[in-house]
Amino acid sequence: MLVHVADNGVGIPEQMKSRLFSPFATTKQESGSGLGLWVSCSILEKHDGTIRVGRRRFGVLRDHGFDLFASCSNTSDKR
What we know:
Layout: E1 2-7, H1 14-17, H2 36-46, E2 50-58, E3 61-69
């Protein structure tokens, strides 16, 4: 399964991309904890999934976002 989460904001600063999935990485000086992407990545990895950041172009529209890949197999025996 693929889920693409996107917005049409200004994007992620180049210097931030290398530490994007690290704990406490944030561009929100006063309101962000910097844990959201780190936690999301950890959850997906525990379920054999991945997350990646990217930029897409659809004709004249562009978006910045994340692709989340998750397995749709039954994981009840992995407990």
